[in-house]
Design goal:
The chain is an alpha/beta fold. Helices cover 50% and strands 9% of the residues. It has an 8-stranded mixed beta sheet with strand order 10-9-8-11-12-17-16-13, with helices on both faces. A 3-stranded antiparallel beta sheet has the order 4-3-7, with no helix packed on it. Residues 1-32, 49-53, 74-82, 84-91, 350-355, 857-878, 890-898 and 904-972 have low confidence and may be disordered. GO terms for molecular function: potassium:chloride symporter activity.
Length: 1046
């Protein structure tokens, strides 16, 4: 191979071309045959790569011919319909560059119906200066958003699937879903706006006789126009929907045509503007005084005309005077006193006789609805005209202001995400998306700025303020400036708006389908299904229905602000997310776009928010409400997607700030509420043994405050880590079932009591710590052969007391109501014996906030738990006391075998339960019984149970009364008898008065200081709560929780 002659030379062996790089061939020797074919292949490969490196005009034209503006996913559906070979499609790599993949699609989507139908009217109404300000604000908003989009595009690998995939995968499902749905609604209403624009062009400028409804009176024009828009809009929408449903390949075939229409229309405007310098087109405007007349209703702009040397009335005279005679009896007074003049509609660049036209267009001329379009500077005599003559003038159909024009114009700068929608087709998305999008925004901004100046300099002000071209014989205003003919703009704008409507109806359903397939919004799941080739049938149907709502509004000026709101919300979310991620220094936020700064995103967000409220504050509130509901709904449903959540750092920063604020001091008594630590017991299979504890916690908290659910697994942490993880997951599942919102913590400890102590000490973080502990009752403690069960309970009570935490012990928890039960009647009884900070008064109120106990009555004051002053201590009291002391002393002093201990426990239990109030055989030196009355005082309720008792006893071997015989008792301290007397008498009163209560709340006495009396303490609690179905033992934490003021 030689570089000079580009020819293959024969050697001893022929060769095979392997590749061609930079005009060099890499060859492999094969056989001698066939070398000529290999030479031809080599030359073709080299020339092809040279064409790729140095593109020619022919290749550019080829790409323009194959240009498509389909969104990501639509192209795949087209190929599936065309039946191309799957293997051939799979081998095709992304090949689009910045021009074809980003720049031209953005250009086509940004230029739209507003440019052709409303920009001239906006310039005439707001004036050149304010129109430039409107364009500047809107273009700056989209430019700043494009910079944020560029930061997202350069933050890692750009996923295929369009802007929704790019944003959601970068910012998380909440922001991604909110942005995606706002973008979807904006695109859907854009389809309605484009269709309404196409219908307006059709019925106003192309085929006015095609109107179905005609005004029946002078003031019925508006309703007839709206009805025509609704009927034709629905027909167009149905037809376009069917086209999209049949196949996107038909939309794709006309993409190049639609792009050509846009470019040719814009070029014709500039050509006409240049031509108007030398030869302005003739579009005369008829003026009556300084008022603009609607030229489509008459031909001659004069009151009279000379025909055959005879002055006759013109059609204009007939319209104002209701007569063909030159009599003035029935003429409009304003018509009589003012002259009819004719001025050029396009005076050129100030070169005409009326050189003040460009200067006049600098300033605003806002009008109210129904006000006549007037020209300043023309002589006019004020006179009260007839109301019937109003349709003969050019009048304003809506009230205009700066804010209204902002809302109407903003849709003409949207469409900046068209390039990112094709991210999967781009050769280098990280380069093409920023460059192509920003270049398209700069190009369109220059076109808008130059168009504003061009319109203000070339076109008369009254013509600019004439929205529908009534003063220039129903010509499209921008078409009057076009060259070579107004029909270039009319036809070009009609096809471009139709194409934009088809593009919107093609892209919006696929965007909804992508959101539905992500399953972040469950009720949209049905819209993820479609035809066999993936065409989103159901999403297309919903899009058509939503677009029909815009069609029924039937006014381009009313639909445009709605469209603006959704796009502004979409851009606001993008800017907000980028700014927050930068400020929070999120580790996964690493944009490589060198011109990005968080201040630009913040400025863009502020500008979007300001534009929303400037254009329409009530639309802005509705759009923000919709976007906020979408965000919170996705957050509430728990979108567990492995996309990463770039905004999670905001929650962490807010939580850190709140925790530091809570550290500043304890909460005021008015703000005190129980922050629960629920201690659960797990069985051998790691299942929650008493799930009703969680039910009780959820009813008490009602979703407010802090709830921590803790449990202890006995063993070594290294060996039981997996078991702890499984237990934690089990508890979380149970919390979800019982609707307990809180945290879970499982501790592995060598002893259960140590683990519970660790939980009480260490749960929570900073000021967000528990102040109350919910502890289950140790059921069956009497029958337990291992005393560690109830000793663990008492030790936990001691730890809670030492930590100054409140303690709640629900007894008979299995009988507590579930969350599905409803108590429509009943009451909660509160037995407030000892002042403990008001816990007993606060808890019933909190329980009644839940729907289970919501209709129960307040506790009666009679049930305050006052102990009756009865000086009689019954024999039953001594019986229970002696039984308790005997059992405790027996187990403490005697080393019984397991069988003997079980027999002894059961025997004592049967005797204590069945013996009733039997008399004792023996003597007891207990002194005067009246001195043993327990007077309850408001003191710290400790029980002093450190008692040493000595006795001897024998068992009777015959007779009907079989029981222990007490031979002697020597009591150094009679507190056990006094305490048991209190428990028995109080239990009698509680059972008598609260036997039908739904729940009984009772003060829980403190544990003994000496561990020798632990079993006596448990017996006292059993006697105190005997015969009650549901009891909640409450022990205060040593601080006031209610005040006399609240």
């Amino acid at each position: 191979y030689t570089d000079d002659k580009r020819m293959c030379q024969m050697e001893d062996a022929s060769f095979s071309i392997l590749s061609c790089k930079q005009d060099r061939l890499i060859v492999g020797y094969l056989t001698r045959e066939g070398y000529q074919a290999h030479c031809q292949i080599a030359l073709w490969l080299c020339l092809q790569e040279e064409l790729d490196i140095r593109p020619k005009v022919s290749s550019l034209l080829g790409k323009l011919v194959s240009y498509t503006n389909l969104t990501q996913g639509a192209k795949e559906h087209e190929e599936a319909e065309s039946g191309e070979d799957t293997r051939r499609r799979a081998a095709k790599a992304p090949s689009m560059g910045t021009l074809m993949g980003v720049y031209l699609p953005c250009l086509q989507n940004i230029f739209g119906v507003i440019l052709f139908l409303r920009l001239t009217w906006m310039v005439g109404t707001a004036g050149v200066l304010q129109a430039l300000l409107i364009v500047l604000i809107c273009c700056c908003c989209t430019l700043l958003t494009a910079i944020s989009m560029s930061a997202i595009a350069t933050n890692g690998v750009v996923p295929a699937g369009g802007s929704y995939f790019m944003i959601s995968r970068s910012l998380g499902p909440e922001f991604g879903g909110a942005v995606g749905l706002c973008f979807y609604l904006g695109t859907t209403f854009a389809a309605a706006m484009y269709i309404l624009g196409a219908i307006e062009i059709l019925l106003t400028y192309i085929a006015p006789p095609a109107a179905i409804f005609h005004p029946t009176g002078a003031h019925d024009t508006s309703s007839a126009t709206l009805n025509n828009m609704r009927v034709y809009g629905t027909i167009f929408l149905t037809f376009m929907t069917l086209v999209v449903f049949v196949g996107v390949k038909y939309v794709n075939k006309f993409a190049s045509l639609f792009l050509a229409c846009v470019i040719i229309s814009i070029l014709s405007i500039y050509a006409g503007g240049i031509k108007s310098i030398f030869e302005p087109p003739v579009f005369p405007v008829c003026m009556l005084g300084n008022r603009t007349l609607s030229r489509d209703q008459f031909d001659v702009c004069a009151k009279t005309t000379v025909t055959n040397n005879e002055t006759v009335a013109t059609q204009l005279w007939k319209l104002f005077c209701r007569s063909s005679n030159l009599t003035t009896d029935s003429c409009d007074p304003y018509f009589l006193v003012n002259n009819v003049t004719e001025i050029p509609g396009i005076p050129g660049w100030g070169c005409s006789a009326d050189a003040a036209a460009p200067t006049e267009n600098l300033w605003s001329a806002y009008l109210e609805k129904g006000e006549v379009v007037e020209k300043q500077g023309l002589p006019s005599t004020d006179a009260l005209g007839l109301k019937e003559s109003l349709p003969l003038y050019v009048v304003a159909d809506i009230a205009t202001s700066f804010t209204v024009l902002v809302g109407i114009f903003f849709p003409s700068v949207t469409g900046i995400m068209a390039g990112s929608n094709r991210s999967g087709d781009l050769r280098d998305a990280q380069k093409s998306i920023p460059v192509g999008t920003i270049l398209a925004i700069v190009t369109t901004s220059l076109v808008y700025f130059s168009s504003v100046v061009l319109f203000g300099a070339c076109i008369e002000g009254v013509v600019l303020r004439d929205k529908y071209g009534d003063g220039v014989s129903r010509n499209l205003v921008v078409g009057t400036l076009a060259w070579p003919s107004p029909w270039v703009i009319v036809i070009g704008s009609f096809f471009s708006t139709c194409g934009a409507g088809l593009q919107s109806l093609t892209g919006a359903p696929r965007l909804l389908q992508a959101i539905a397939k992500d399953n972040i919004i469950p009720f949209l799941r049905v819209f993820g299904h479609g035809k066999a080739n993936g065409e989103p049938t159901w999403a297309l149907l919903l899009t058509a229905l939503i677009a029909e709502l815009g069609i029924l509004i039937a006014s381009l000026d009313m639909v445009a602000p709605i469209l603006s709101m959704f796009f502004l919300m979409c851009y606001l979310f993008v800017n907000l997310a980028c700014a927050v991620q930068t400020l929070l220094r999120t580790p996964n936020w690493r944009p490589r776009f060198k011109y990005y700064h968080w201040a630009l995103s913040f400025l863009g967000m502020s500008l979007c928010l300001a534009l929303m409220f400037v254009s329409s504050w009530y639309y802005a509130l509705v759009a923000m409400l919709i976007a906020g509901m979408i965000y919170k709904y996705i957050e509430y449903q728990g979108a567990e997607k492995e996309w990463g959540d770039g905004i999670r750092g905001l929650s962490l920063s807010a939580a850190r700030y709140a925790l530091l604020r809570l550290e500043e001091g304890p909460p005021h008594t008015k703000n005190w509420r129980p922050q629960l630590l629920v201690l659960l017991k797990l069985d051998e299979d790691l299942h929650v043994k008493y799930p009703r504890l969680l039910t009780f916690a959820s009813q008490l908290k009602a979703g407010k405050g802090l709830t921590i659910v803790g449990s202890v697994i006995q063993g070594s942490f290294l060996e039981s880590y997996g078991e702890a993880q499984a237990a934690e997951q089990t508890i979380k599942n149970m919390m979800e079932i019982e609707k307990v919102k809180g945290f879970c913590q499982v501790v592995v400890a060598s002893k259960v009591r140590e683990g519970l102590a660790h939980l009480i000490q260490s749960c929570g973080l900073g000021g967000m710590r528990h102040n109350s502990v919910v502890l289950g009752w140790p059921y069956g403690w009497r029958q337990s052969e291992d005393p560690r069960a109830w000793k663990t309970f008492i030790d936990t009570v001691r730890c809670t007391t030492a930590a100054h935490l409140a303690l709640l012990v629900p007894k008979n928890i299995a009988f507590y109501p579930s969350n599905h039960e409803r108590y429509l009647e009943g009451h909660i009884d509160v037995w407030w014996i000892v002042h403990d900070g008001g816990m007993l008064m606060l808890l019933p109120f909190l329980l009644r906030q839940h729907k289970v106990d919501g209709r129960q009555q307040h506790p009666d004051e009679e049930g305050s738990g006052r102990l009756p002053h009865n000086s009689d201590i019954s024999a039953y009291t001594y019986e229970r006391t002696l039984m308790m002391e005997q059992r405790s002393q027996m187990l403490r002093q005697m080393r019984l075998t397991k069988t003997e201990r079980e027999r002894e426990v059961s025997g004592l239990l049967l005797w204590g339960r069945g013996g009733g109030r039997s008399h004792f055989r023996g003597t007891m030196g207990l002194g005067n019984q009246n001195d043993l009355l327990m007077h309850q005082k408001r003191t710290h309720p400790h029980w002093s149970l450190g008692v040493e008792v000595g006795w001897g006893w024998t068992r009777s071997l015959g007779g009907p009364d079989v029981g222990p015989v007490i031979s002697s008792i020597t009591c150094r301290d009679q507190s056990n008898v006094r305490r048991m007397h209190t428990a028995v008498k109080l239990n009698e009163v509680i059972v008598t008065r609260s036997h039908d209560a739904r729940l009984v709340l009772l003060n829980m006495p403190g544990p003994p200081k000496n561990s020798e009396g632990d079993e006596n303490y448990m017996e006292f609690l059993e006697v105190l709560t005997e015969g009650l179905e549901r009891v909640l033992l409450v022990r205060g934490g040593g601080r006031e929780v209610i005040t006399i003021y609240s």
